[in-house]
Amino acid sequence: MTETMTNAELLAAGGNLMLLGMGFVFALLGLLVVTVGAMSRLVRRLEGEPKPIELSAEAPKPADGDLLSAISASVHRYRRSRGK
After folding, report:
1. I need a labelling partner for 38 at 20 to 30 A (CA). Which of 21, 28, 31, 65 fits?
2. Cα 27 off chain centre by
3. pTM surpassing 0.90?
4. What is the pLDDT of residue 60?
């Protein structure tokens, strides 16, 4: 014998399945957040605090003339080949 479900029963079963699936996904995402947070704390404890980057006070060196002309020629050739 086959049982037939009414539309209301099908809708209720679909709603239950939807809530079960959403609950499962929410639980897994919560577990993922907790796991990533714990790993982050563990890595920070093992590695220690990051050292600040020291910036030099000297002025940057001027670019080489040959380098600038090579870059300019390359840009010009690229633009010409692209029709710009």
Report:
1. 21
2. 21
3. no
4. 72
**Eight-class DSSP state of 4:** -
Contacts of 48 (CB under 8 A, 6+ apart): none
- The whole-angstrom separation of Cα 77 and Cα 69 is 12
pLDDT digits (tens, 9 = 90+) for 36-70: 999 999 998 898 877 888 887 787 777 788 888 99
Listed in sequence order, the residues at least 6 apart from 14 whose beta carbon sits closer than 8 Å to its beta carbon are: none
C-alpha distances in Å from residue 59, one per residue of 46, 52, 56, 64, 68: 37, 20, 8, 15, 19
